[in-house]
Amino acid sequence: MKRILGTILSVLLCMGILSGCGRKTNVDTSTVFIDKKGKVTSVDVEGLDRDYYDEEELESYITEHVAEYTQKNGDTVEKVSFGVTEGVAKLQMEYDSCEDYTGFNGIELYQGTVLSAQAEGYDFDTEFYSVGDDSEEEGAGKALKKEDVLADDDNKVVIIKANVNVQVPGSILYVSAQDTKVMDRKTVSITGEGADEEAELTYIIYK
Question: How far apart are alpha carbons 205 and 176 in whole angstroms?
Fold first, then answer.
């Protein structure tokens, strides 16, 4: 599973369309932002080779993809902006819910309480580490097992299966250990190699 911009680029290349087979969201790394009400903003950042894309064709394809989704699911997805600057394409999208983000991109994304996540079948079967008050950059804390992080099931959790930065609407308490780096108390960078379909589930628990 790939984020929408990467997916569209791949599709357009295969189709031959690309000449061959100010606010918090102003980021230079692909990032998913989730607010307190469960709405999602994504910013996809992809490097492009100028010899293999047409900006207008690419934006047109994105617009058509949004139209197809909203025709079936209502106005729950919106293309906010798209542009290419110095060979870097940036696409900002907004979604009414995590379910719409998943439906549109094919990327698993969940937000809820720890208790509700367990009811949905998430087993939290991985190692975690704590994020201490003095770990603003590295997020290196004590190693924990899932029993530790499940102790307070009223805490909130974001669960995602993608290699992307994620910003949550609260203060991070624990993060699953594999392929993660805490950038600050709200943001986790998921740094696994390979495509998103090869990514592990990342659990970000916060209050």
Answer: 9
